[in-house]
Every structure is written in C-alpha cells, then in structure tokens.
Design brief:
Length: 282
C-alpha cells in the first residue's frame, strides 16, 4: 500500500492544496471532495460501530470488536479526570468517543493511496483529487469544533440547569459590573475555543499531507524508505490530535458542570496535563 501511495503522490510535481475543491453543486450548496470523503468515513465508522455493538451482544468481544472496546475504555479513562467521576465518563463516553474515533479514522484514512492524486475528478473548473481528508479542510474542522462546543453547552445545561449554567459565566452575582464584564469575557472565550480547536486540528492534518506529498516527490529514487517514516509519523499525529481534541472538549464540560455543583460537591482536581492544554487554549 505504501508503494502505491508513493507512486500516486510522486508525479511530475507534488499536489499541494490548502483548500478543498468543489466536485458538484446541489441546490445552491457546494459539495467538496473533503465533504464526500468525510461522509464516506462517517458511514464506514458507523457501520463498524454497529457491527461491534451487535457482536458484543452475541458473543465475547474478539478482533475489531475487542479493539473498539479497548478504545472506548481508553476514552472513559481519558475523560474521567476532567468530568470528575467515572459515572459521568461512562455516560458521556459515546459522545466523546465519537469525536475521538472520527478524528483518528479520518486522519488515518487520509493517507490511503486513493486520497489526493490517486483518484481524480474532472469538472468545468479543471481536474483535481476526488477525495480529500475531512480534517484537512478548515470548514470541516470548524464544523467539528462548533459541534463540540455546542454539545458542551447542551450537556452543561442538562447537568446544571440553565441558571446553573449561567453561573459558570457570571457567578451568582451577575449584576455586579466586574462579574458581568468577566462573564462576557468567558462567553467570548467560547468562540476562541472553537477557533483554537479547529485551527489546531486543521493545521496538523494539512501539514502532514504536505509533508507526505513533498517527501514522496523528492524521494522518488528511494521508494518507500522515504515515505514510510512520514506515514508512521502521521498516524502518531492522528492519535495525538484525537487525544487533544477529546480531552479539551471534556475539560470544557467538566469546568462548566463544576460551577453548577459548587454548592454540592467540591471541585475536582484537574490533571496537570489537562490544565496545560486548557492554558494553551486560553
């Protein structure tokens, strides 16, 4: 497979594109190559998840089913610290697990040989790759970041109630001018979180694609020896980005619901790694 990837990426010149290409237009909406591949990856991941769920009910987990179970157990351990309890982590594992799996799956599928110049589409606008990784499209990562933050807001209101959720921003004395000003800054901070989540994921993915294309082009005479380390590095980056995105989203929820339960329970201690990630977003 790596040899095929090498051949497809090492043509007359490396294919480098920072924005997705429009494949077709439907009812005023533009369907890009990243949208198409994102839908394909989502359907494949959904099919694998349903198969794993059915297999778990019928027999002991083995093969891909056991692998999915291991990932979900990892996600539960990942978000248990930010959320403050294992019960909440288990309850919200399907949501955060979906983010985690979707990012890893998209990034890994993004280095497959048919992505990029492997399969081309020809329209009136020219010839370009039919498939592009969804996470290599800034529109796609913005959509994921917005979905994550909106989900956090919904779950926070569900946990703490609407008034309890407002305390997260304006404390219990919103009419105090200082508290009102700080609260507005906190609300603005939600938008900066969206920008941070989307840019971090997009830039790491698209830079990886550029590295693969460039190294495949300059290493024509070395066959897979040049592109193999880059492909392995991209898999590592995919895992790291999925980890960072998931733990930050869980941290945002943990901070929000902690404010809503300040009077009932002490605020849980935040893991130093999570705290540093949150500080990076700020």
């Amino acid at each position: 497979m790596l040899n095929n990837l090498f051949v497809l990426a090492s043509g007359d010149e490396p294919h480098i594109a920072l924005s997705p290409e429009a494949v077709l237009h439907v009812g005023g909406f533009t369907i890009t190559n990243s949208t198409i591949y994102g839908l394909i990856c989502a359907v494949l991941l959904l099919g694998i998840s349903l198969f794993a769920r059915k297999s778990i009910r019928l027999k002991a987990a083995r093969g891909i089913t056991q692998f999915i179970e291991m990932i979900m157990e990892f996600v539960i351990g990942l978000i248990e610290g930010p959320l403050g309890s294992r019960a909440k982590a288990v309850s919200y594992a399907p949501i955060f697990g979906a983010f985690f799996l979707f990012i890893i799956f998209n990034n890994i599928m993004g280095i497959m040989p048919w992505v990029g110049p492997g399969v081309n589409a020809t329209t009136a606008e020219g010839t370009f790759p039919l498939f592009r990784a969804f996470t290599a499209d800034l529109n796609g990562t913005i959509a994921m970041a917005v979905t994550a933050i909106v989900t956090v807001q919904y779950l926070s209101i569900k946990e703490s109630g609407f008034l309890g959720h407002l305390k997260h921003y304006f404390t219990d004395k919103p009419l105090n001018p200082v508290n009102a000003f700080i609260g507005l800054l906190e609300v603005f901070g939600e938008f900066t979180r969206m920008i941070s989540l989307s840019l971090r994921l997009f830039l790491n993915t698209v830079v990886g694609e550029i590295l693969i294309a460039v190294f495949a082009y300059i290493g024509k005479d070395f066959q897979s020896f040049t592109i193999l380390p880059i492909a392995m590095f991209e898999i590592l980056v995919a895992c790291i980005q999925a980890y960072v995105f998931t733990v930050l989203a869980a941290t945002y929820l943990g901070l929000a619901i902690a404010h809503g339960h300040d009077d009932e329970h002490p605020v849980h201690e935040v893991d130093p790694i999570v705290a540093s990630l949150e500080g990076d977003v700020r």
